Amino acid sequence: MAKAALLGKSGKADLPKELFAEPFHQSLVHEAARADLNSRRRGTASTLTRGEVSFTTAKAWRQKGTGRARVGSLGVPNRFGGGVAFGPKPRNYAVKVNRKARRRAMRSALSVHAERGSVAVLDASDFATPSTKSAAQALEKWGARNPLLVIVTAEETGAMKSFRNLPRTQVLEVGATGVADVIAAAAIAISEDALAILKERLA
Q: Domain for residue 37, yes or no?
């Protein structure tokens, strides 16, 4: 059974085999991480087409008799100030990933940290009163590497406030944590309650 450091304390904590014993599946992790990052894109970029730019509808000059080539709309893409051809329009970047595949990818990402020894379990009750100094000391004692991901429950506000101001440290509620967040972190610290929720959701 994989072991994890106890943040701020001596000794080791047992990690549930259901979460931290999954072989690494590169294709699944890539698919799930890509879906996570795409779902965070706003998709609001929008350009004006030649039909949407504010231009006069009059011809630049008459059709015949000038010796110049005939010309129609001034809002065409090849003219300065004209519309954009094939530019971005508001769209949804969400990519569907099957539930079983997403769960397996998350277990795989967590197992990588277990193999590296970059997982720590924290007791949120130790940070019931927010203290960034205590959080920094606990991480220094553990020897945490940055960037660091701290996973807590929504009720553990003390722990959330203690870690969120530390440099290169991301604090996420367990339900908002994705595969991309876990893979991008050099080390992760998980509260005991968050670990129980992950076990229930992913096992």
A: no
Write the CA distances from 25 to 1, 95, 102, 155, integer angstroms.
Answer: 20, 19, 11, 32
Residues 68, 153 within the same domain: no
Judge whether 172 lies within some domain.
yes
Q: Which domain holds residue 61?
A: 42-92
Check if the beta carbon of residue 37 is closer than 8 Å to that of residue 180.
yes
Q: How far apart are CA 166 and CA 194, in angstroms?
A: 20
Other CB atoms within 10 A of residue 48 CB: 13
Q: List per-block mean pLDDT (blocks of 10 residues) for the chain, which spans 203 residues.
A: 78 86 93 95 94 88 93 90 94 94 94 92 88 92 91 92 93 93 94 91 85
Six token digits for residue 80: 């300065």
* Number of other CB atoms surrounding residue 201 within 10 Å: 12
**Whole-prediction pTM value?**
0.82
Rounded-to-integer distance, Cα 150 and Cα 111, Å: 16
**60 and 84: one domain?**
yes
| Bridge pairing between strands 3-6 and 119-122 | parallel
In 3D space, the residue among 148, 114, 135, 87 whose CA is nearest the CA of residue 17 turns out to be 114
